[in-house]
Amino acid sequence: MVPAAFVGVPAIATAASRRAATAGRQPQPPHFVTTPPASATCWRPWLVASAAPPPLVSSAATAGEAATSPPGKAPSPTQRAIIFDCDGVLLESEELHRVAYNKTWAAAGLGFEWSVPYYDELQNAAGGGRAKMIYYFDEAGWPARVTDGDAAGLEDRKAALLDELVAAKTRVYTELIDTGAAAVRPGVLRLIDEAHSRGVVTAICSAANKEAVARTLPALLGPERLARFDLVLAGDDVAAKKPDPLIYNTATERLGLPAEACVVIEDSAIGVAAAVAAGLRVVVTTTPSTASQAFEGADRVLPGLGEVGVDAPEDIVDVDSLFP
Question: Which residue in 284, 243, 269, 290 sits closest to 116, CA to CA?
């Protein structure tokens, strides 16, 4: 069960208008919303991070009006957005995912493990847990509980096994998160706070499922900081996973911003491929699992966002370097 929900508004508010509208109020925990955009042709419930009701309005808006125009209407020419991937970009969590997968296989009696080199391969082959499982079973063979039986029910048995394993892995992963095993990557909180202080729109597009995202982000970023994000999409909020560009196309549509006003921060080749296919600029912050990958189409490839007082000034990623 998802422990918290995200409440969103039909149109986003700029960070400045959010601060004006919420002056004197404490940020509230996020909530889930399951309302598709009017223009969507295929959707699943997504996560939207925003401040709690009442709906936010800009200082120029009259009561009841959204602070920004709905998708399709021209946004402010000065509005910019940073769209973050989650695991490997915001969080040092990829090895934690591998551990959670292996605990899941052991508990299910499947008799195999994913090594570090093999998991690195998966990072460049499939986005999201379900897709990784399908990739592995298609290569190594599906368990007998799936292959035994009539051909007509094969796909149903595959789906049932995947549902069971995804749910179990999510439980294991969130338990690990609750122990404090994950950490925020260096420079992440600094860049997020700078973006919010300067009125830059912020969003998260994660390949992880909604339950994992809803548990992880408040714990690692903090509820108050997370509440200032304009949009959060999880992997099961769209019908196709990265490297398909759908999640990024959905994000720019939802934000009501053109691609040229946005920059994506990714850590993997399939994430870069998704962002580039959506017409977005991409900055890569590598991890040990992805450092050897080819990031075709990326604007910059860096080992991280950099931390003030630790890294050289030219290695610090800030708002000005993202939007020169």
Answer: 290
Q: Which long-range contacts (CB under 8 A, 24 or more apart) does 73-79 make?
A: 73/256, 75/256, 75/257, 75/258, 75/261, 76/14, 79/14, 79/201, 79/257, 79/261
CA distance 269 to 3: 31
- What's phi and psi for 161, nearest 5 deg? -65, -45
3-class DSSP state for residue 232? strand
Give the Cα separation of 162 and 156 in Å (integer).
10
- Measured CA to CA, the distance from residue 205 to residue 244 in angstroms comes to 12
Catalytic residue among 85, 236, 237, 267, which?
Answer: 85
Whether the bond between 55 and the residue before it is cis, its omega within 30 degrees of 0, is no
- Distance CA(189)–CA(204), nearest Å, equals 14
Q: Which residue matches tokens 């714990």?
A: 219
Give dist(CA 149, CA 158) in Å, integer: 12
Question: How far is 249 from 320, CA to CA, in rounded Å?
Answer: 24
Q: What is the pTM of this model?
A: 0.72
Please, which pLDDT band fits residue 179 given cuts at 50, 70 and 90?
A: confident
95, pLDDT greater than 70: yes
Rounded CA-CA distance 296/163 in Å is 33
Residue 87 a catalytic site member: yes
Burial state string for 193-219 with b = 16 or more CB within 10 A and e = fewer than 16: eebbeebbbbbbbbbbbbbbbbbbbbb
The answer to whether 262 and 280 are in contact (CB under 8 A) is yes
Confirm whether 85 is a catalytic residue.
yes
Distance spanning both ends of the chain, measured CA to CA: 43
Q: Tens of pLDDT along 31-79?
A: 333 333 333 322 222 333 333 322 222 222 222 222 223 344 345 567 9
| 204 vs 78, more confident | 204
Nearest-angstrom CA–CA distance, 12 and 277: 24
